[in-house]
Design goal:
This protein has 13 helices and 13 strands. The chain is of the alpha+beta class. It has a 5-stranded antiparallel beta sheet with strand order 5-4-8-7-6, with helices on both faces.
Length: 304
């Protein structure tokens, strides 16, 4: 029989009235205390309680074991510090980033391996977390990998502080590229002789800038959802559609001459540049960007 299967039962009233007797019983084995015939509590000796707790921890079910399992599986780096900001916990991601082992880190101030740490924003925020209970999220250069950036979240942890961090170098570059693209689009709009449109994977216009809308003589809202080839003369559509489909299907860039029909009559010769959004395979489904320049302006630029 298991330990709990050996337990006896006593009503809560008898347990209170004869506490001395049942206290001796608990020393020999567990005791179920019932209320209206249903077991509500289990009484056991302190020694037996500690033995069961230690057995659960050794089997990987105790609170410490669960905590270590969770910290070890998260995808971000995790470092915990005591009140003196010495490292008391470090998960595998943090060790890999710092290029050392947990055994080397534990008990040591992070500044011993990276002296510049004491002059960083991270150190300042960890101090504030320890001394004032403040949490913060911020980005700092990586001390272990020059040129890389980390996003850290610092927070109070026990009597000290802890931080979660991950490498955001790629995300920062993506933000810069997005900002540069937005600036380029704004510059093209200011130029007025260069129009730009974003095409969906089905070659319809998702967004068109005012310069291109003005070039064709339409309002920007009118052109949304329209195929780029639908505002071209009939005799130019097949060739243009072939170039657009080729770019969407895998060709990264293309340039060709065509024409746009102008609202209220007439045509204008244009040079069109196409670039697929993204690089490789599945990214083709993101669509493409089209840059449209009046042929006259393009010809003058080429001759200059």
């Amino acid at each position: 029989m298991t330990y709990l299967q050996q337990a006896e039962s006593v009503s809560s009233a008898d347990f209170v009235r004869q506490f001395g007797r049942w206290q001796g019983q608990v020393a020999a084995g567990p005791l179920f205390v019932t209320y209206h015939g249903r077991a509500r509590l289990v009484a056991m000796s302190v020694d037996r309680y500690h033995a069961l707790a230690e057995a659960g921890t050794a089997a990987g079910h105790g609170p410490d074991a669960r905590h270590e399992t969770l910290v070890g599986r998260i995808g971000e780096g995790f470092l915990a510090f005591d009140a003196a900001l010495c490292i008391v916990e470090a998960n595998p991601v943090a060790c890999a980033h710092l290029r050392t082992s947990a055994a080397t880190l534990l008990g040591q101030p992070l500044g011993e391996a990276h002296p510049d740490f004491y002059r960083t924003l991270a150190y300042s925020h960890l101090l504030r977390a320890t001394q004032a209970g403040e949490a913060a999220t911020f980005e700092v250069p990586s001390a272990a990998y020059p040129g890389n950036w980390l996003r850290l979240h610092s927070f109070p942890y026990g009597t000290g502080a802890a931080c979660l961090f991950r490498n955001v170098t790629g995300a920062r570059e993506a933000r810069r590229e997005a900002a540069a693209s937005a600036a380029l689009a704004a510059a093209m709009g200011a130029h007025r002789a260069v129009g730009c449109a974003r095409l969906s994977p089905r070659a319809t216009i998702v967004r068109v800038d005012p310069a291109l809308a003005e070039l064709a003589g339409f309002a920007s809202e009118t052109l949304r959802g329209v195929r780029l080839t639908d505002i071209m003369p009939l005799n130019r559509r097949v060739a243009a559609a072939d170039r657009v489909e080729a770019v969407l299907a895998g060709d990264e860039v293309a340039a060709f001459d065509s024409a746009l029909m102008v609202n209220r009559g007439g045509e204008i010769e244009v040079r069109i540049g196409l670039a697929r959004i993204g690089v490789g395979g599945e990214a083709a489904s993101e669509g493409a960007v089209a840059v449209v320049t009046p042929r006259a302006a393009w010809s003058r630029s080429a001759s200059d």
